[in-house]
């Protein structure tokens, strides 16, 4: 259920409304726009007696009450008509500018990540991505450098100024990763790790939530709802490919979900063509297509020497190809009224 306050409703009236909702046994989530405030009621509102709803409707400073049947209330357009814009070190995600996150699948050494960071910076990309903790299919595969990798990422940031995006896999690591990273990534395998999502709802860092490889639109947005319900409003949705019968790519990059996400939710949306295709030769065209269909950015795997990459070499473009991608991305962005 969503309560829309009238234009001009003051803080005391908003608080009085919140108190009334709490007296009914429900939590609240407040969104303040330029002209009016919207209060989201958290919980199973089907149990609210209609007489209580009518009393709220009769309140002079409440404009309307809308019952939302979708399980993802806080992430929906019903709750917030305006696009959410997330500020990370002065870089806006979800505004007019397209963001590009680039870097290796895995942090392999200090020298490696710093060299790549310098190339990412010179290309014009806006974020450095790299994994310190890596979820691998086989237990004996390289699992990442852990905190040492985070320290290398931080040093790369200090030398280039690029904000850091890296994955967190465990509730026990949220505080640690938050000390180093600017954006915490949730991988496809953890999209429905509800304990992790709840923990991320308590932190003050933006979260990049990747779509589960079998997740429906409803499941994806419901996962984001967990984080917002915990109090963290800064969530970035990421399409990264889903499993289908198609066998010529690693996954099927579902670009059709991008405009649907933009219409269903106020949260920013980016696309990962590297994991979405698993093929370095089509990363660039799919990245450009993502921008064309309305994505707020892309995240790509890039390495100074992809053939020597410890993981994901088949889908990692070279940093020289990243420069080429950035040039074409700037052109495509202008065509659609955006910029990099």
- Beta-strand fraction estimate: 15-25%
Can you summarize the main beta sheet? 8 strands, parallel, barrel
Helix content: 25-40%
Give the number of helices: 11
Alpha-beta classification = alpha/beta
Quote the CATH topology of the largest domain: TIM Barrel
Order of helices and strands: EHEEHEEEEHEHEHEHEHEHEHHEEH
Which architecture of the largest domain per CATH? Alpha-Beta Barrel
N- and C-termini, Cα separation: 38 Å
Task: Return residue spans where pLDDT drops below 50 for at least 5 consecutive residues.
Answer: none
Overall morphology: elongated
CATH class of the largest domain, anyone?
Answer: Alpha Beta
* Order of adjacent strands in the largest pleated sheet: 7-8-9-10-11-12-13-14
Structure overview:
The chain is an alpha/beta fold and 340 residues long. The chain has two domains: 2-66, 2-Layer Sandwich (Alpha-Beta Plaits), CATH 3.30.70.1140; 86-335, TIM Barrel. Helices cover 35% and strands 19% of the residues. The chain has eleven helices and 15 strands. The strands form three sheets. It has an eight-stranded parallel β-barrel, surrounded by seven helices. The chain has a four-stranded antiparallel sheet with strand order 2-3-1-4, with helices on one face. Strand 10 (183-186), helix 6 and strand 11 (207-210) form a beta-alpha-beta unit. Helix 3 (110-123) runs parallel beside helix 4 and helix 10 runs parallel beside helix 11 (319-335). The protein is elongated and about 65 Å long.
């Amino acid at each position: 259920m969503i309560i829309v306050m009238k234009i001009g409703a003051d803080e005391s009236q908003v608080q009085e409304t919140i108190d009334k909702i709490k007296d009914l046994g429900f939590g609240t989530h407040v969104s303040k726009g330029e002209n009016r405030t919207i209060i989201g009621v958290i919980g199973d509102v089907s149990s609210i007696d209609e007489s209580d709803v009518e009393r709220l409707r009769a309140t002079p400073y409440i404009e309307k009450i809308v019952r939302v049947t979708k399980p993802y209330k806080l992430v929906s357009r019903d709750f917030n008509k305006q696009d959410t814009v997330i500020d990370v070190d002065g870089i806006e995600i979800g505004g007019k500018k397209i963001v590009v996150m680039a870097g290796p699948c895995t942090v392999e050494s200090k020298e490696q990540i710093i060299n790549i960071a310098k190339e990412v910076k010179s290309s014009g990309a806006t974020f450095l991505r790299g994994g310190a903790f890596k979820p691998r299919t086989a237990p004996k595969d390289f699992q990442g450098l852990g905190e040492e990798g985070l320290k290398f990422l931080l040093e790369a940031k200090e030398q280039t100024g690029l904000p850091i995006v890296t994955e967190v896999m465990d509730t026990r690591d949220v505080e640690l990763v938050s000390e180093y990273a600017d954006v915490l990534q949730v991988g496809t395998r953890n999209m429905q790790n509800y304990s992790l999502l709840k923990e991320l709802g308590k932190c003050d860092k933006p979260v990049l939530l990747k779509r589960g490889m079998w997740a429906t639109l409803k499941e994806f947005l419901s996962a984001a709802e967990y984080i917002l319900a915990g109090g963290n409003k800064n969530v970035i949705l990421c399409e990264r490919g889903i499993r289908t019968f198609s066998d010529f790519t690693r996954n099927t990059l579902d670009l059709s979900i991008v405009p649907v996400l933009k219409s269903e939710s106020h949260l920013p949306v980016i696309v990962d063509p590297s994991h979405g295709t698993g093929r370095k030769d089509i990363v660039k065209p799919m990245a450009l297509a993502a921008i064309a269909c309305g994505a707020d950015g892309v995240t790509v795997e890039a390495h100074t020497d992809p053939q020597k990459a410890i993981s994901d070499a088949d889908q990692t473009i070279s940093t020289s190809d990243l420069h080429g991608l950035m040039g074409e991305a700037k052109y495509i962005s202008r065509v659609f009224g955006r910029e990099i």
